[in-house]
Design a protein that fits this description.
By secondary structure, the chain is of the alpha+beta class. The chain folds into 2 domains: 50 residues, no CATH class; 48 residues, no CATH class. 45% of the residues lie in helices and 20% in strands. The strands form 2 sheets. The chain has a two-stranded antiparallel ribbon with strand order 1-2. Strands 3-4 form a two-stranded antiparallel ribbon. The longest helix has 21 residues. The relative contact order is 0.11.
Length: 102
């Protein structure tokens, strides 16, 4: 299925000159929006599956979060620290203060 999605919108690089940046190579796909999106997603999955660190993929520890992530640091616990991590820290804070006030 991944190979079919990748083949449905093949990518090619197009070189262009830009002011300041010099020569750039942008990736272009020649297909409709749905096929381009499927190919982009299939490419991301293929890159993840072939990454040597695929065994390090973790489930987010936040309650109710279903996301998986590849941690940049071994102690990382949440998919997005500013969202899931913040919710967990706030929940711990309220739990501590609720116990202290009771």
């Amino acid at each position: 299925a991944l190979n079919a999605a990748l083949a449905g919108a093949p990518a090619h690089r197009e070189l262009s000159w830009t002011d300041g940046a010099g020569l750039t190579a942008a990736v272009h796909r020649t297909a409709g929006p749905a096929r381009r999106l499927a190919a982009e997603l299939a490419e991301a999955v293929a890159q993840l599956l072939t990454d040597p660190r695929v065994g390090e993929v973790r489930r987010c520890e936040a309650e109710g979060c279903v996301l998986l992530f590849l941690p940049a640091h071994p102690r990382r616990r949440w998919c997005v620290a500013s969202v899931c991590g913040n919710r967990a820290r706030v929940a711990r804070y309220y739990a501590r203060h609720k116990e202290a006030g009771a």
